[in-house]
Design a protein that fits this description.
The protein is α/β, with parallel strands linked by helices and 342 residues long. It is built from 13 helices and twelve strands. The strands form two sheets. Strands 3-2-1-4-5-6 form a six-stranded parallel beta sheet. The protein is globular, with a radius of gyration of 21 Å.
Length: 342
């Protein structure tokens, strides 16, 4: 196998958890060239992975077929003469481009009954507490169906040039002379993964007297700007940068952070891949399935009877899995991490 195409996941965190697959493919096929198709909001992360040669950013919308756009991209890809395609999303439409491009081997999970679209099919694991971690789920595609995986897998890692971090700090008037604490209050999947904004605000108020010189910022996409604004209303010392940075700038600021406090989100996985001290807050999701893959993370998960439910909104209406995760407890963990870093 000399050239392969990756159909990347639609989420930043999932794209990072797919990186061990790319590392394994390079190890198993030392001369292989890996290109990727990714949504334009995920492409910048793949572009920072040394295993990926080229990324085709797309504007394909979620839950839309857009057959004409897929056909046009497939015609472009035919000339690249790919030996194989690894289709990481489970949807039928994600397998259309490799099929239209006439790529001989099309590898993925059964997904939405993708018979014909995928010709090397792995069995889908059940969605329960026993399903494998996401990194192992993706990494299995490097091998034949039902083949075993190594006990130890590579972990996601990205690096940033120091000048990029310095430029981001300068643009947002932040300094390396004082601790930088990044709050990531968003989670695109849904509200059931978001620690309440009042808890973030209370955490900021607890930080202020203990670390008076700390710089606290919020990071996230444009749709998280309201969450950031609600935090700053209650804790004016917090600077709301949600929606004001590019993804690359957000990565650069995270790379400079003394501690990152984040929901289970793409930015959490970026912080883990950058090996920053990280407090990862879990509610409706399961840290056994999508953990932050770094020894510098501390996971906060109450593991209530109703959690994980994997729902977008709390099906019981109370969100106790996150509301009962008190800011005072998170602050004690954050305090220890800051003192260790200093």
């Amino acid at each position: 196998m000399q050239r392969a195409l990756i159909i990347a996941p639609n989420w930043i965190g999932d794209a990072l958890m797919a990186q061990p697959l790319f590392i394994l493919l390079k190890k198993l096929h030392p001369r292989i060239i890996l290109d990727a198709i990714a949504p334009n909001w995920v492409a910048p992360i793949l572009e920072q992975m040394p295993e990926i040669n080229h990324v085709y950013p797309t504007q394909l919308a979620h839950k839309k077929l857009q057959l004409r756009q897929r056909w046009q991209l497939a015609q472009t890809l035919r000339a690249a003469d790919y030996d194989a395609a690894f289709i990481l999303p489970n949807s039928a439409k994600s397998a259309l481009i490799p099929w239209l491009a006439q790529i001989r081997l099309r590898i993925g999970y059964h997904g939405e009954h993708r018979y014909g679209l995928i010709n090397v099919r792995h069995p889908n694991p059940r969605k329960n507490a026993q399903r494998p971690p996401m990194v192992r789920h993706y990494a299995a595609l490097a091998y034949a169906p039902h083949a075993g995986l190594p006990a130890e897998l590579p972990v996601p890692r990205i690096t940033l040039d120091q000048p990029k971090a310095a430029q981001a700090l300068q643009r947002f008037r932040l300094t390396v002379q004082a601790p930088l604490i990044a709050f990531c209050p968003g989670a695109e999947y849904g509200a059931a993964k978001r620690w309440p904004v009042e808890h973030f605000a209370t955490l900021a108020q607890l930080i202020a007297p203990a670390f008076p010189y700390a710089q606290i910022i919020t990071l996230g996409a444009a749709q998280d700007a309201l969450l950031g604004a609600r935090i700053t209303e209650q804790a004016p010392q917090v600077r709301n940068l949600c929606g004001q940075t590019t993804l690359n700038e957000a990565c650069a600021l995270i790379a400079s952070a003394s501690v990152v406090v984040s929901n289970d989100s793409g930015l959490m996985h970026i912080a883990a891949a950058l090996r920053r001290p990280l407090l990862a807050l879990y509610g409706s999701s399961d840290p056994r399935h999508t953990p932050p893959l770094t020894d510098r993370a501390r996971v906060q998960w109450l593991q209530l009877e109703c959690s994980p439910c994997f729902a977008r909104e709390c099906p019981l209406g109370h969100l106790n899995c996150l509301r009962q995760l008190k800011p005072e407890h998170v602050f004690e963990q954050l305090r220890e991490m800051l003192l260790t870093e200093s």
